[in-house]
Each structure stands twice: as C-alpha cells, then as structure tokens.
Amino acid sequence: MTAVGTVTELEVHDVRFPTSRRLDGSDAMNPDPDYSAAYLVLHTDGGPPGHGFCFTIGRGNEVMAAAIRALAPYVVGRPAPAGAAALAALHRDLTHDSQLRWLGPEKGVMQMAAGAVINAAWDLAAARAGLPVWEFLSGMTPAELVSLVDFRYVTDALTPDEALAILRTAEPGRAGRAARLRAEGYPAYTTSPGWLGYDDGKLVRLAKEAVADGFGQIKLKVGADLEEDKRRLRLAREAVGPGVRIAVDANQRWDVAEAVRWMTALAPFAPYWIEEPTSPDDVLGHAAVRSGQPVKVATGEHAANRVVFKQLLQAGAVDFVQIDAARVAGVNENLAILLLAAKYGVPVCPHAGGVGLCELVQHLAMFDYVAVSGSWDDRVIEYVDHLHEHFTDPVVVERGRYRAPSAPGFSARMEPESVAAHRFPDGPVWRGRPERPEQEVSR
Amino acid sequence: MTAVGTVTELEVHDVRFPTSRRLDGSDAMNPDPDYSAAYLVLHTDGGPPGHGFCFTIGRGNEVMAAAIRALAPYVVGRPAPAGAAALAALHRDLTHDSQLRWLGPEKGVMQMAAGAVINAAWDLAAARAGLPVWEFLSGMTPAELVSLVDFRYVTDALTPDEALAILRTAEPGRAGRAARLRAEGYPAYTTSPGWLGYDDGKLVRLAKEAVADGFGQIKLKVGADLEEDKRRLRLAREAVGPGVRIAVDANQRWDVAEAVRWMTALAPFAPYWIEEPTSPDDVLGHAAVRSGQPVKVATGEHAANRVVFKQLLQAGAVDFVQIDAARVAGVNENLAILLLAAKYGVPVCPHAGGVGLCELVQHLAMFDYVAVSGSWDDRVIEYVDHLHEHFTDPVVVERGRYRAPSAPGFSARMEPESVAAHRFPDGPVWRGRPERPEQEVSR
C-alpha cells in the first residue's frame, strides 16, 4: 500500500466498434448499436498506469469523452491512489463537487464519467498491489470497505453499522470461498443467442452451442412483437431443452400495463426473469410489474445510482439486482449497491456485454461472493462473446463459468492497436465513412 | 403556421458569470456557484433565429456545450419548426435516438441539452407566430397539445384521453384568464433575501425590501446548521411580520431521518414548505419526509424527467411540484409534467433564478394557468433578482407579480454583448483569471 508517484496525465480516447454492421447487440430499443468506449488512461511518473472507460452504443461517445476530460483537474496532480483512504477521497471529490453536481446530480453522463475515472484509479491501485481487483477488494478489512461507501441518501435503508455487520459476517469464510472461486469459476449466462436482429437459424444454432458450452441459462431479447416473441421462445426452448433457464429482456420497451399484459402472455413459456420491463427510473412501475404478473423481475443496468437501487429494494420491486460496472460512480458506488442488495437479501446478477463490461464486472461479482453476500446461489454474470479480443486481459469463460482473473488490475486495459484502429472519427476503421454513423431523423 | 426557411446552424457558447465573488446563489450544497449557461442559437436561412440554453453553476458548462453540439445533426437541415407536429417530431428525435439514449436515458447532461435545443425551437416557432410562448401554447387546441406530449412510461398515471379531458375542461375559460393575467400578472415569491452566504444585516434588509416590494412569500436557504437556521428564521419572521409566507430550501442536504428531525425542529417557526429535503431521485424518501413531519414538501428542480414526477405524484410525496424550464426535455416534457400535476391536483410552483430560468419558466406557469390547471391559487413562480440585464426581454416583476410577457418568443435571447463579455475562458471577464474557477479537492 505504498503510494508511488503522482498522476501526471489523464489521456482520453473516443473508441468505436462498427458492430451495427452485423446486428450484434440489437434489441427492441437499440436496433443498430455501434459499441463504443470513452477510454482513459491515468499516467503517473512512476509505476503502472490506470485504465478505465465508459461504455456507450455510439453517438454521444464524444460527449462522454468531454465529461471525462472535465474531471482531469480532480485527478491530475494527486498522489497515485493506493489504498482505501485515497480511493474514498477520489470518489467523494468526483461525485460531490458542488458545481459539477448540478449536471446530475449523480446520474447520466457525469456519473458515468466519474465512474470511469474512479474505476481507472482502482485499476491503478490494484496493479500496484499486484492483485486483481476482486482480490484487492477482498483483502480489505470490513472497516476499510465501509469507509469506501458514500452513505448519503441511503441511511434510511442501510447504516454504516449494518454494512459493517454484513461484511463481518462474511469475513470468516473469505479464504474458503476465494479458493473455491479459483477452482470452479463463477456461474455465467449468455446473451449471445438472443439478439433481436438474428434470424431463427442463428438463434437455434447459438442456443444449442450455449448448452454445449455448459451454460445453464441463456437470454432472449423481447418486446418488439408478441407473436414473434412466443415463436422465438418456443424455438429456444426446443433448442435448449427443459433444464436450461431462458431469461427475457425487454430493454425498457413497455409501459407498466403493457409489461404486465405481455409477460402474462409469455408466462406459459416459463421465462426465468423479465429484465428491464419499463423505464429504469420507474421504481413504482417495476413494483407494479412484479406484483402484476408471475415472472420474476430483474433490472439495474440503467439505474442511475445507489438511491434508485435503494428504492427498488425498499419497494420490493425486483427479484434480481443487475449492477453495471460502468454506469454508476465506479467500484465505490457498486460497493454501496452490493451491500444494499445483501441487506435486503436480493441476489446480484451483473449486467455485462458491451465493450469491456464483462471484464470489469466479473471482479465485483467475485468480490460479492467472497466478502459480501457470501453466496453464488441464484447468481449469474451475463456473458456476451464479442469484443474481448480488444483487451489485454480478456475474460475467460469455460463450461459456463467465468474463471477468476489472476492478472493484477481491473482487466480494463485495451490493446493499444485496437484503440488506434477504432478511434473515432480518425482511426482507419472509420476513415472514409460518414463523419457520424447514420441517424434516423423524422423530418 | 407557415414554415419559413431551414435551420442552417446551431451556434453554441459557454457563458459564465462570476457570481461566486459575491456569494449570490449560495446554499447548503452550493457554496460558491458561478452561474452559467451553455447558450445556443438556431440560425435559419429566413425568419428570426431561436435561442435556448442549459443553466449550470460553473464547472462542467463545457460538457453541456459539447452535448448541445452533439445534437446539431438532429436539427440542422430541418425546416424551421412552426407548429405542433414539427415540435413533437423534434422532441421525439432528440429524446429517443436509440444511441444517444444510452447516455441517460432521459436524464442529466443529455436531457438538459435536448431541453435547450427543444426550447430554442419553441422560441423560434413562437417568434415566427408573433406570440410569446405562453400565448403560442395557449392558442393550440387540446388535441395539438396532447400530440406534443410523450406518454411513454406515464400511461399508468395519465392517458392521452385523460390529458385531453383536462385540457378541454380548461378550454372555455382560456380567454378570460388570459385577460386577467395581462391585467394582474402572475404571483411571485422571492429568494433574493435568503442565500446562505448573506449576513444577518443583508438578510433582514432584503426581507423587508421584499415585503415593501409586494411579495407575499420569501424563501430562506437552510440545512447547514440547525441553530443558525432557527436564528435566521426568527430574524426573517420579525422582518416580514406574520402575514408573509417563509418557505425554506435544503437543496438536497439531508438523509430522510435527518430531514424529518430538522424540519420537526423548524416546524414551530411555521415554514410554508420545505424544498428539496433530500436526493431528487428519492421518491420514497420524499414520501417519508412528507408523512414524518408537519411541513409541506416541495421538490422538482432537479427531478430528471416526467417519470420521476409521475412517481412523486403517485406516491403522494409532494405538496408542490417545482418544474424547471431547463432541466427536462423542454416545453414538451414540461407539458407532460403540468398535465400530471393537474391530474393529481397538485399545484405547480416553478423553480427559477439562475441564468434566464425566470425568463423561460414564467411562460410555462402562465400557460398552466390559462389552459391546463386553470388556477393560480397556491401557486407562485420563484423570482431572484439577478442577471436579468443580460437578456433582451427580461422578466418584469412588479408588486410581487410577474407581468405577462408580450414580446414574441420565449424571452430566451441573451444580449450579444453579454455573451461576448462572459464567454469562458476567452471572454474579457475571464481572461487573465485561472483557466478554471477554483476547486475544492481533498488530497
């Protein structure tokens, strides 16, 4: 835990992958995403750098890059963060600056930018400690972990003392669970078969491959057409057999009554959960959907911050909490959310996919297993099989499980060649194409 | 309603006023704001331009400017919007682009940027119609107004048919109320005395001036120190006498239990409402504060979108809905919020102040009176007496009331000299100062 050097530069790149050309990632709300990252490197004058990013689906990635740049004065010139105290202070400065706060508060572009910088600081600190982030976190004391959490606005649901008690309860079993995790890996499910733009043949083929690869759960995108959804669910069920769970994901497509109606119609196909049935801001709406139809409810990848998660739990609105590593204010805010979920006894099943989200979030789920919830029952990390080749420490998923990463850091470093090739708009992948990806504008 | 010309350019300026030098605008969360605007002009090849802006309090204003620039391709090249259909289509394109949506959805930086562009389009359309925006809106049919609203995610609280019924009920009285509004003006309250950074002498002097100026309500900032708050409330009450309402505003300072405790202690001083007791995202928290202590609850200036307002109303969390003209997606989304408030019978008391927020929001409150709620009982528009001199059609507040604006447009145009002088970082006001306003960073 020795601080080495000072942060000298925050380098930012607008990196975009032309995924829309193959309809990877297509769903009821996102017909043609170009998976992108506003990627940053924290350079220091000694020791390894830190890497972080915001994930976007194309247009607006330059706004995220501008937001990250706006945070440079808060991190450049600091000692390279090494331990809990420095990482807590950085999180506080980035999320509670009195002027920047006006742009959220704690939501949207500025919160994602803060998350990217905070995650980069964790990458840097864990790299200096020579540990992957999940082990770096799992090696902290309960008191250190509590000191990392911003309890503002959540004490009506979780106090620091309650958080400490949760962490202390899990403490004795840490070593045993870490050993089991290294031996067995963490359960995963795959969304690769289920993109809405894929034809039936591709759906069936990929669903069968998922089962052969050892996955116990797959996920299908739904919400564009009810009869189509029934047909695709039937096809998927025939492909995977009765023993594999099929979750469905509406990507915020419905109003409350429509969600209830649609899922009542899909319930006979026994979907495992319905994900994002409606607006991610609609706590009361999710509660109404959960009580109005028989399928379990999952949400969280677009929940803006811990205050929204707190309410989802208080209102009994969700069966599964889906954290995202790059939507909220980094490791610190996700730690608050993991503790809230543990307090309410709701399993955390992280959202992943995109660019590098699998790489990041595996660390948080594994830390949750080792040191917070102490369980992986009913828990699975999403897995999508694309774009991992652009990372220097890509996830390894075998027999339906994430292998515990062992390289130091947050698995957040992109291959320099990938960054250079996909820089928007001047990288070779984009040069000669229209300056912006095509837009749908009604005139 | 004839379209004249095409939008040819979206011009953006980062404009900042050094208000922190005098502690104008200081409160428990915002000790030293530099009131700022990311200001835009929609130029056309015929007819008047449109003006709009996002309000910020300093740092990060350049991120807002970048977000507005990201929206240029959605508006440049369109016919200059003239009527409801074009204004509805623009709102839809700016808030539901499948890729940009990922950066919110519908919240924070991107939603404010969309709001600024949408409001500029309303300024342009009303200017072409030769009407102030409140009259332009009040001249639309109930069906046209309903067509402007995005009902996605709110139909469990308000259907298009219900909205139509609300507007039709108000329709017969429109002309009478418009005439009364022109004659009498709309009730206002003033926050000018209550900034936390002002000393007792300035507080008492400004409170007395407010009463002499005809205001029936003032507002004090609270939340930094309970004994100080009691003392200042006592001073203010002595200064204004028993007949003037004193609202208090905590600017999100408290957790739920603290808000209940603090306001229970302030209740003997009979504050008229407690504004922003806790996180603007905390619907359930506001409901708990409302039921846990005797003072009425107001919030909304930081509520991200119509989905949050919907829930505040569904949960019975607020006594007053405080719309902000520049936080949500422009006139269209505020129209949804006005209709929701009317459905639930909760009065709308707009947030204003900042840069140009009084100028914009007066139009929405007046339209609400004329054509939606049909009432100004228990309704007041916030008024703060600074920075109006930078607008070409500044608000006029006399004897505690906003005079109905008569100039065409949205009162959104800034004096070109003000824009040039306050451009950050290269305008004469900022040149020679540090590139960024001072930051508090804990190291």
Describe the structure using short key phrases:
homodimer, 443 residues, alpha/beta, Enolase-like, domain 1, TIM Barrel, 2 domains, 16 helices, 40% helix, disordered C terminus, lyase (chains A, B), Mandel_Rmase/mucon_lact_enz_CS (chains A, B), metal-binding (chains A, B), L-fuconate dehydratase activity (chains A, B), magnesium (chains A, B)
Structure, briefly:
Two copies of one chain form a homodimer. With 443 residues, chain A is of the alpha/beta class. Chain A folds into two domains: 7-155, Enolase-like, domain 1, CATH 3.30.390; 172-417, Enolase-like C-terminal domain (TIM Barrel), CATH 3.20.20.
Beta-strand content bin of chain A = 5-15%
Characterize the biggest β-sheet of chain A.
Answer: 9 strands, mixed
- Cα(first) to Cα(last) distance of chain A is 58 Å
> Helix count of chain A?
16
Sequence stretches where pLDDT stays below 50 over 5 or more residues of chain A: 435-443
Coarse structural class of chain A: alpha/beta
Mean pLDDT of chain A: 95
Mind telling me the CATH superfamily name of the largest domain in chain A?
Answer: Enolase-like C-terminal domain
CATH architectural grouping of the largest domain in chain A? Alpha-Beta Barrel
Radius of gyration of chain A: 21 Å
CATH topology of the largest domain in chain A: TIM Barrel
Helical content band of chain A: 40-55%
Form type of chain A: globular
CATH C-level category of the largest domain in chain A: Alpha Beta
Number of domains of chain A: 2
Q: What is the total tally of β strands of chain A?
A: 12
User: What is the subunit organization of this protein?
Assistant: homodimer
From N to C, what is the helix and strand string of chain A? EEEHHHHHHHHEHEHEHEHEHEHHEEEH
Largest interface: A-B, 75 and 75 residues
Protein name (chains A, B): L-fuconate dehydratase
GO molecular function (chains A, B): L-fuconate dehydratase activity; magnesium ion binding
Organism (chains A, B): Streptomyces chattanoogensis
Pfam family, one (chains A, B): MR_MLE_C
